[in-house]
Amino acid sequence: MGVNTVRERVSSSNKLERIWLLAKIEYKLRYYENRLGLLWALIKPITDVLIFYVVFKTILKTDIPAFASYLFIGLILWNFFLESTSGTIQILYTKKYLYEYSNMNKMEIYISTLLSSSIGLFFNMIMFIFFYNFIESSTAGLGVHNLWIIPLFINLFILSLALSLILSSIYIFAKDITQIWQVFSIALFYLSPIFYRSELFQTALPAFDYLNPIAGIIINARRVMMQGVQLDFSLFLFDFGYALLFLLGGLLLLNKLGSKAAEKL
C-alpha cells in the first residue's frame, strides 16, 4: 500500500470523525439552554401528535385506523425536513467561522448539521416503532419490509440537503428567502398527507403525490412501517429523482455563489 493511499485513508477517516463530532455538538447545543435539555427532542413530536390527534380524531372524527401512529410517523419525517431546511438557510453566515478559520469545507458543515437532525429523527423513529408495534391494538407487526425505511431516509436526507444548499445560497443575495420559505413550507405542510388519508389526498389532488416529493416519502414510509407492504417503487423513483436533481442544482449554486458568501454576508 502506497504512502499516498495511507494518507488519503487517514484524511478520509479524520474528515468523517470531524463531521460526526460536529453533528453531536450541534445536537446537544440545540437543546442546551432548555430546562428539559435533550428530552425536549423527544417531547416535541409527542406534543405535536397530541394536538393534531385532538383536533382531527376527537373533534373532526377522522376514521383512520391507528391514527396516533399515522400522525406520529408523518410528523417526525416532516419535522426533520422542516428543521433541516429552515435551520440551514443562514448557515453560511452563522457557521462562517468554520469554513473561514478551519480546514472544514462548506459541504462538511451542511452534512454535519443534517446529521444532528438525524440523531433526533433516529430516537423518534425508535419511539414510533415501539408505540405502533407494542401499544397500538392492531398492527401489521415488525417485518423485513420495515428495512425499506432506510432508503426512504436516504431519499429524505438528500432532498433536505439539496434544498438546504439552494436556500442558503439564495440567502447570500436575497435575505427575503427566509420569509418566502416559511410561507411555502406552511403550504407544503397542508398539501402533504400528514393528518388525512393518502387515498383522500390522491383523489383530491391527482398526481400531486408525484409532484410533492415529501408527500411521496411519507406515503411510502407508512406503507413499509404500518401497512406491511412494499414501496410504491414508481413514487420512490420519482422522489429520488427529484432529490438528485435538486442536489445537482444546489451544488451548482453553492459552487457559483458560495465563494462570495464571506464578503456578502
TrEMBL record:
Q: What InterPro entries has UniProt attached to this entry?
A: ABC2_TM, ABC2_TM_bact-type
| Entry keyword set | Cell inner membrane, Cell membrane, Membrane, Transmembrane, Transmembrane helix, Transport
Q: How does it sit in the membrane?
A: Multi-pass membrane protein
What Pfam families does the record tag this protein with? ABC2_membrane
Q: Where does it localize? A: Cell inner membrane; Cell membrane
Q: Name one GO biological process term.
A: lipopolysaccharide transport
UniProt lists the family membership as follows: Belongs to the ABC-2 integral membrane protein family.
Domain ABC transmembrane type-2 per the UniProt entry, residue ranges? 36-257
Q: Where are the transmembrane segments?
A: 36-56, 68-93, 114-135, 147-173, 180-196, 233-254
The highest taxon in the source lineage is Bacteria
Where does this chain mainly localize?
A: membrane
Record's GO cellular component terms: plasma membrane
**What is this protein identified as?**
Transport permease protein
A molecular function GO annotation:
ABC-type transporter activity
